[in-house]
Amino acid sequence: LPATLLLAGLADGHIESSISAYYYTKVGNVFTGALCVIGVFLVAYRLTSWAIDNIATTLAGIAALGVAFFHAAPKNATLSQLRLADVHLTCAAALFILLGAISLFIFPRDMSPDQPDRRWRVNCYMGLGALIWLSIILMPTLNALAGSFYDDNHVFFILETVCVMAFAVSFILKGHGQPSNQDYNKMAEQRLATIRPLADGDTASTGTP
User: Fold this and answer.
1) Percent composition of the chain: helix, strand, coil (DSSP 3-state, to 5)
2) What are the CA-CA distances from residue 22 to residues 4, 15, 68, 152, 155 (Å)?
3) Which of 51, 67, 70, 104 has the most CB atoms lying inside 10 A of its own CB?
4) Are 170 and 197 in contact (CB under 8 A)?
5) CA proximity to 65, closest of 101, 97, 90
6) What is the rounded distance in angstroms from the CA atom of residue 20 to the CA atom of residue 67?
7) pTM confidence score
């Protein structure tokens, strides 16, 4: 999402001050659509029980949908637009805080104690979660201490991008998406082995190839 918005801004010759500001550009539908996908996925990710893990991901998904549908204030905003922008900022803050918490606390808890690469994965999750929370802290801090530098160099956009990309990396690690991971290849083979006898029996009874 940040990469697409940045490329679109470079093509138009103007980089916006934040990710949310791209709603008012040609790629506004990309901004809204991507956040809707993220929101629905996080809501559906762990909706089977009311454990604290499930609540955190569900709230993050709701916050993402709030960011998508309650927009940032445009230039010369009306009072109603400013009120909607307050909801937008609240949802955005909640989303980033929850994403950091998920990476810091939930993903490390999901690790199996006997997994060989557990230590470095846990360190990665916690480092990425801490990076998200550090970026959140820097947003208002740098704005207060160096407002002109903050605005002129698109610092807010950069910090938002760090938050989004850090969670993306954390979630990819959580998915164990490495094709060379032999442990998960073996697990897949074992599952296929339990399915094949049923499939063979079904083939014999129906005569289908």
Assistant:
1) 80, 0, 20
2) 10, 9, 11, 17, 15
3) 67
4) no
5) 90
6) 8
7) 0.78
C-alpha angle 103-104-110 in degrees, rounded to nearest 5 = 70
* pLDDT tens readout for residues 41-58: 999 877 766 777 788 889
pLDDT at 209: 45
Contact 199, 135 (CB under 8 A): no
Convert the pLDDT of each residue in 16-32 to its tens digit.
989 999 999 989 999 99
Average pLDDT of the residues of the chain: 85
How many other CB atoms are there within 10 angstroms of residue 124's CB atom?
A: 18
Q: CA angle, corner 96, sides to 51 and 20, nearest 5?
A: 135
Distance of CA 31 to the CA centre of its chain: 13
52 vs 145: which has the higher pLDDT: 145
Q: Which residue has the tokens 């010369």?
A: 76
- Whole-Å CA distances, 164 to 81, 118, 194, 202: 25, 24, 39, 47
Give the C-alpha separation, 40 to 205, whole Å.
Answer: 42
Residue 35 in 3-state DSSP? Answer: helix
Mind giving me the DSSP string for 19-66?
Answer: SGGGGGSTTHHHHHHHHHHHHHHHHHHT-SS--HHHHHHHHHHHHHHH
